[in-house]
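User: Structure tokens for this complex, please. No commentary.
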Amino acid sequence: MKASRSSATTTREKLLDHALTLFSDRGYAAVGIREIIHAAGVTQPTLYHHFKDKRSLFEELIRQHYEVSQEQLEQVVAANNGCESRLQVMVQSSFDFCLADPRIPRLMFQTYYGPRIPEIDGILDSLTDRRFQLVKRIMVEGIHEKCMRPRDPDFLALTFCCLMDQPLNIFSRRSRPGRFLTPALATEIVDQFLQGAST
Amino acid sequence: MKASRSSATTTREKLLDHALTLFSDRGYAAVGIREIIHAAGVTQPTLYHHFKDKRSLFEELIRQHYEVSQEQLEQVVAANNGCESRLQVMVQSSFDFCLADPRIPRLMFQTYYGPRIPEIDGILDSLTDRRFQLVKRIMVEGIHEKCMRPRDPDFLALTFCCLMDQPLNIFSRRSRPGRFLTPALATEIVDQFLQGAST
DNA sequence: CGCTGAATATACCGATCGTTATATTGCCCT
DNA sequence: AGGGCAATATAACGATCGGTATATTCAGCG
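Assistant:
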């Protein structure tokens, strides 16, 4: 590959990487492009050479990481059978994904559960819906296999996503998320979802 | 009460009210003070007469609504006995609180689960911790009364808060949250928490 | 009446915002 | 060698940001 092309890619990826660091910490509105280009060690026209504007940079960041995480989830779900083990690997895979780079769940969940961002209105819902439908399919399957009580799959998918996302969001902000996002917690979450808290 | 004092109170409350509307929609960083004073129909020095700066206005808004919602929760919990009914009224009371003014849970949850706001770093944790401890006490009691399996009360409180907060956060953003935050959903959430999803 | 002090307005401050016109560098192809 | 083009930098644009110096209004009070 040509040097100029590879150098361009590096610059572009460097911008995306530092944008990820900053946006995942303080969000789209609070981070200025000067902060990003300063962290990346470039100047403004360089950023505007690689991205149309601030909004495009942010949207690409979001789309890219939603894409990767979604593919990983679909992969581990497809590689397992039975609703319980599928839910289990889904949580565990999400935990691993977070520990590999906590900035990514921070960006995704804080952007989704945080204040509205008019610049990207509408694109978040379609991205998160793909994962919701995946969870919902597992629920429908679980009910059909009679390992789950027959209830509204939308409700089940919602509660499961709550139990999975919230710990990811909360603990990915702490220092050393690995202290909290343990395999034991992943198992406990699935157990809590399936068995409940009562005796 | 003097006319000037009452007029001052109205202006101050008008500012807080429009700030609530705007901050709960797009967050602290994305909303400028000009937008607030324009909505309230006053000028900048008026805002700075009633509040030290943008940060103080926001902090007062946050503290005020956390205070009110916390008191309401403690009240309904104290008025009921048994862990199941306490959990039930807690969810239902939170739903009612949201339906009375969806801007308030939007502000609270989006501020808490959204990107970090350096200006108010540290004050959110102490405010949310009070509610978490309340939930935790119900869990400890429930375990002691043998209506819940003996598990880590922190984990139980975490999962219950997940199941309660996430629907509140998600549905308070939709139009007419009352379509979703029904008494039936409140009951389903408590049932899901206690009984789980499996057969 | 004239004084005081809270409340509000006009007009502006310097700083930062997202963005760009212009110029320069340096590799690739001919 | 030199044209062409992607990549980067210097320097600045107008707009908006949070915040304020100053002036005016108005109510309460001696």
